User: What shape does this take?
Amino acid sequence: MNPSYRKYLYAALVVFCTVFTAFIFYNGGKKSNLPELKPRQGVLANAPEWATTQANVKKLRQELETKPEDARTLLMLAKEYMQEGRVTGDYSYYNKAALDIINMVLLKDPRNFEAICLKSMVFLSQHRFAEGKEVAMEAMKTNPYNSFVYGLLCDANVELGSYDDAVKMADKMVTIRPDIRSYSRVSYIREIFGDIPGSIEAIKMAVSAGYPGQEDTEWARMVLGHLYEDTNSLDKATEQYQTALRERPDYPFALAGMGRIAMYKKDYPGAIEYFEKARKIMTDVSFLEQLTVLYRLNNQTKEADEYARVTLNALLADNITAQKNQDQGHYSDMELANLYLQQNEPAKALPHAQTEHQRRPQNIDASETLAWTLYRNGQTKEALEYVTTILRTNSQHPERLVKMGVIMAANGQTKEGTDLINKGLSLKPYMEESLVKIAQPFTGR
Assistant: This one.
């Protein structure tokens, strides 16, 4: 077939599919095929905001029955679904639902600023970081005076490893609108650059700017708790998690925080209880991963193996779905690499670590995962090639310091490596035992 003719047929097919999708979605103002709000299960069904969410969604859907093409109403519904995904952890369903609605708006109005921003936000949630940045740049051209778009660009640049650009975007965001969202990003940027006191100061401002009990406020409080965990301040971390549980009872990430505190104190049954409760409230792979570790530490091999299997299957399914249809699922190669390392299967981890690194070679997390995977595969010299990139921001993340120290010491840079290891262990002396055992031969302790 003539190449130009093939291109013409493809273009015609795209136009047909777009028009057909719009027809199905709007159906001439008749019955709507908008995605449904899924029922909540368990503790989440009793959460105080659930009744409000249901009422909001019902009202918006009723309005769309009479005005199915109203962009404002459609985007309000998309935002409700995006927030529901955040609360329930059902990102695959709600990201796809929101994206379908957003695309309907953009079909009618390609320059709709809010729709473009929300599309970027969904892409970032799906780990489509380069696409998310591209869409956010488009939004910025439409409205360069909105703080939210700079938040999106900050997030995208962080994930892609363009940290200097991320700083500029965070500065613009907080200048335009100093609030919980901008303070949170300032905190994260400061953490990346190793300014932990400054990071703590900014996230405290974020918590103060939020409304107690709201999900975004308590999430910011979780960040503060994590920063205390990474600076040998367990009492302060515990205080943040307990406060969150008072303000937002059964908040799963606060339960997980309490679980980590119990794990650090070697109270493995107590830690398991916290994480099991969090898991039953919200589907989050990190809870499953932690339970795998905890059951193994508690000598419950059967339970550990089962959680490892469930977690692996979930991550693989999400990855395969994203490869087939980017609008569903999200790329999970870094999570897969880390899980395989946790299961002591470094050979299986390597292709996932390499794939993630190819997507964002300047990101320090992706680079760290690849370097550590190479080291665990016995490729010590190759691992060293990434250390400079990983340490270039002066990050003080304890586990990162230990891993990079091990790689350096194993390559003959004994003093520099040992100094990094000891610094990491002093920041977090209750670090995961498996990593401490790997580092121990290089510490002289």
Q: What stands out?
A: DSSP finds 24 helices and no strands in the chain.
